[in-house]
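Quick review question:
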């Protein structure tokens, strides 16, 4: 069966529907806007190999819809916080556009994605941390909350 709509068309449709922020916009808000929650949807191997954005929540692409849905056994309460804007990113901006569209279709309106993804972030010389440092910082934040 031939493909009738390719991935580029799907990404273009998603980008027309969802909010997209530039690296510069996100970088300017990071640490200053308590509403901003970055969500890294990359595979754990990518995080280990390439590093992470400080403060980003890791939600693997394959689990994202399950973590967002309150009816799912995998639901993560952080996604129920309607006061936050969840800005998704992946390696280059394609997966995050499709993921943001999926969450929009689920009913989330406080969702966006970052154009160019982690690659654009890294190229801009924005702050990075290792996967090990990221995991340690996440554990400290969880200990402070709970």
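Suggested answer, residue by residue:
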């Amino acid at each position: 069966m031939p493909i009738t709509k390719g991935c580029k068309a799907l990404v273009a449709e998603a980008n027309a529907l969802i909010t997209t922020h530039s690296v510069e916009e996100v970088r300017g808000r990071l640490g200053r806007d308590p509403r901003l929650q970055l969500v890294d949807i990359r595979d754990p191997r990518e995080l280990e190999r390439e590093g992470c954005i400080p403060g980003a929540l890791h939600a693997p692409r394959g689990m994202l819809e399950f973590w967002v849905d309150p009816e799912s056994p995998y639901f993560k309460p952080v996604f129920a916080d309607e006061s936050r804007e969840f800005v998704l990113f992946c390696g280059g901006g394609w997966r995050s556009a499709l993921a943001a569209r999926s969450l929009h279709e689920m009913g989330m309106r406080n969702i966006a994605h970052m154009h160019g993804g982690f690659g654009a972030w890294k190229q801009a010389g924005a702050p990075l941390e290792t996967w090990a440092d990221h995991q340690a910082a996440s554990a400290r934040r969880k200990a402070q909350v709970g």
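Why it works: Strands lie at 19-21, 36-40, 57-58, 85-89, 111-114. The first strand starts at residue 19 and ends at 21.
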